[in-house]
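Why does this matter for the project? Reviewers at the last site visit asked to see concrete outputs rather than summary tables. In response, this paragraph embeds two records directly. Each consists of the residue sequence and, immediately after it, the corresponding structure tokens. Nothing has been edited or filtered.
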Amino acid sequence: CAGVGRGLGLDILPAKDAHPSLPQDDPVHLRAAAQDRRIMVTYNRDDFLAATHDAFASSAPHAGLLILTHRLPRDPARIVHALARWVEQRQEAGAWPMQDYEVDFLSH
């Protein structure tokens, strides 16, 4: 997934590779992504929306959240191509990078 993304000009870094020593805890990964100024991309809508709410309430760092809907198949190549289209559309609209605490959804 990351290799295909790099080929399309994306900077993709799986959470397990970014901070392998961190526990597999959603808020921890969200904070780590924010500290690195990376957008968190996930299918885990409910937990990461709650973590985003908590981050906002506590003024914790947050670089943006992109939720993949279940309409987007869990096929790494399709996900990466959808991400590339999403980034391109946001750049063309002048909406790149995401704003702190911003949440968006990607379904295709």
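We now turn to the second protein, recorded in exactly the same manner.
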Amino acid sequence: MFGSQHADEIFSDAYNPYMRLYHDCTEYQTEEEVYLILPVCIIGKGRCHYSIRKDIKELTGTSTYNADLKYD
């Protein structure tokens, strides 16, 4: 299954999560697939919570976005 864990996490320093976003906010209302990435979630620091504030109206393709990351 895509996105599942494979029991190799113990050998990793961080998770590299991403968000796959589908939207039709463009001028021509075509559906776009966008990836928003960063920062990585450091393993062992607690649960990761991301806050994303971004105008997606004309967002297309792969976009790297530095989200606000907070740990529990």
